[in-house]
Amino acid sequence: MTAPKKDPRERAAELRELIALHRRKYYTDDQPEISDAEYDALERELAAIETEHPDLVTPDSSTQRVGGEPSASFVNVPHRTPLLSLDNAYSEEELRAWEARLVRVIGDTARRYVVEPKIDGMSIALWYRNGVFERGLTRGNGVVGEDVTANVRTIRSIPDRLPKALPFLEVRGELFMPLTSFRELNDARQAAGLPPLANPRNAAAGSVRLLDATVTAARKLDGFFYALADVEGEPPVAAHTEALKRLTALGFRVNPANAVFDSLDEAIAGIEAIRRIRDELDYQIDGAVVKVDEIELQRKAGSTSKFPRWAVAFKYPPEQAATRVRAIGVQVGRTGALTPVAELEPVLLAGTTVSRATLHNEDEVARKDVRVGDLVVIEKAGEIIPQVLRVVVDARPADSEPFVMPDRCPACGSAVVREEGEVASRCTGAVCPAKRREALLHFASRTGMDIQGLGDALVEQLLATELVRDVADLYTLDVAVLAELPRMGKKSAANVKAELDASRSRPLHKLLFALGIRHVGDRAAKVLASSFGSVTSLEQAPQASLEAIPEIGPKTAAAVRAFFDEPQNRELISRLAAAGLRMEAAPDELAPEPPADSPFAGKTVVLTGTLSAMSRDQAKSRIEALGGRVSGTVSKKTDFVIAGEDAGSKLDKATALGVRVVDPDEFARMLAATIPGRA
Fold first, then answer.
1. Which of these, 148, 249, 366, 587, has the minimum number of CB atoms within 10 Å of its CB?
2. Long-range pairs for 506-509 at CB < 8 Å and ≥24 separation?
3. Which of 5, 6, 25, 118 is catalytic?
């Protein structure tokens, strides 16, 4: 029996809620839960209802809006002119319907159409003043965008200075993450036990909106530009193709696959030509854009509140395949995160044979209810990472059982924990084989035991030769053994051995950090060392006692307790103690109470820019010694920002949030005020 059709008003309200949810997941959280095709279907259904029932159109309907809301994490800046999105077409018939609507407005067909690859990335607007890059804005909601200037400056292909000192120029384009960079990033994330990013589009959007521009720089973003939105100092262009030539002359990357055609029939052939080469490109595309070339006809066609009438995006259908789940395994990443993976019957998809698909986490498996033996529909997310879209429940074997995440690590047998509010389950073992490389590098890091010379290459050799299984084994190495390793020699071996010997006397807080206890960073390690004074006291401390320590929250306390509750970890501590490492804090490590008049006591401080009087590390140490906490990000909870020379986006955000800004001179006076006899 067919289910009764929903009332249009009820269905429209339901669609608006669904669309708002998925827009937020896409634009704000950078964590989409459905495919583009599924999202577009929701919008198209809502648009059809509103067309049939105009009285149901509401101001908050997605049909009346352009993009997602701008993030509160960045300064929001109005666009000089709205940065509109494009209407979509999914078939030749819909393309011809678009042209028919265009003809009704302009009175004739366009003389020329430009076809461009539709980059699956992030829209960006760049402002230049007197030939110098001034500002980069995301689309935001189309009227107001996020100022991501500091992050855009890290993209090497974007010119800092133009060959012409035009009074003002605004160009618009699409930023993207090259597929090679995307694969490298996901390889690194999976090696670190982090879930892979879903697709290059969200990787690009997330990278542009990071609060740390140095991380954005490492992501190796790129971009293509397609519009001269505003220009002063040069005559206007008469055609879109002319604008593309000017962009190239000004130093902006313009897509070499762009082409111009004399009719829509030819443009449709051009769309198909781009589709045939999409697998050869080092960037993600999800379709092609058709634009009227003549600027005068563009003006005549105009725009709706959301789309220009003179352009349309043709979307390629996603490639999908159906196959069976042979098994569901669990991978352990280098930070201990457990990731369920579906082992599939091999199937051809988007030109490659797929036999495995990530299931991301326990919640994702439960949400889709993926089971061994299921027939599943898979798709390459961003045509890169195979993922399970849905289960064909009607084809499920009668004896199938729901997946259950193991409570012991499949790599080492240690307990698996999942913290409240997190989606990842993690191994608690400090000697887990899956975590060895990361554990050794973390242990030897500068903030940890500071063992110079023990870097990636040497750690790889030690693991490959099975000379080391865990961090305690490092202290069994001697010069003769090290010297036999490739590219070492006696001198290098002696240097490494000297560093290992020196690390035995490192302060207790360095050891606590080096052990890699979850949530125990440099600051928490210092607080724990100064509060408990020894590993033995810390090992025996109840969780309630840990939580009672200032700056140690429930998550950190639980992680510390879980670490010491694991027998393998306690055995590792015993071996480190036997190797001569310090297990107690020296008297001077037991930090005294900060001066009663300390302006930093209990305050959260952010450092930005260069301080001429001291290094960043020195400033951090002084602040912490005076009872302050140094954070890397600015928020409403920040008490003040110390801004040195060349302060960047953190200063802008502090100003936007109304956070107190302290210059270097005032910072020096605050420090001096805590020294007896100084004013």
1. 587
2. 506/449, 506/450, 506/581, 506/582, 507/582, 507/585, 507/586, 507/589, 508/533, 508/534, 508/535, 508/582, 508/583, 508/584, 508/585, 508/586, 508/589, 509/585, 509/589
3. 118
